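Protocol step 4 of 5: obtain the predicted structure for the target chain.
Materials: sequence only (see below). No template structures provided, no constraints applied. The aim of this step is simply to have a reference model before the mutagenesis design in step 5. Sequence pasted as it appears in the construct record:
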Amino acid sequence: MTVVGVVSGIGTAFIASGYSNIMNYILALFSIFNAPLFATFIIGMFWKRMTPAAALWGLIAGTGGAAFIFVTSESGVDSLGFSEPPLFTFGSGLSASFWGAVVAFVADALVTVTVSLVTTPKPVEELAGLVYGSAVRAAETHAEHQVWWQNPVTFGIGALVLAAPLYIPFL
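Step 4 output (structure tokens):
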């Protein structure tokens, strides 16, 4: 297994060497993998109707959409080796990554919602604490018995009070 990791690391280094800087490479990877993951996470966190199948197919669609934008904006050679202009031109790697992320997010969201509407959702009881609005109410009854450092409101106000003097010199 270690050999597979080392070989994939070497292969990744060769791919990264084809970029003008490492940031363009990282942004290309983020647009392909993180943008659809973010869409799936946000929809799943706020919509009780979302299903596991919808998450899977949404991730596949989003990753595929961003990969399509990446390949068609970078390639200038067809399958026979003849040079041809890329299907999309964005002007820079940053712009291509941005539009790849937009396509990934939108494709993921559309497929996730569509598949969720045609599949059976999980019961609300199984979603307790996972989806916004389905939190267990029993935890709120114990809030008055918590010590002050375990109360999130007290802890948040304390963090703001301690952080405020660090911002004053920059005003």
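Step 4 remarks: DSSP finds six helices and no strands in the chain. The mean pLDDT is 82.
Proceed to step 5.
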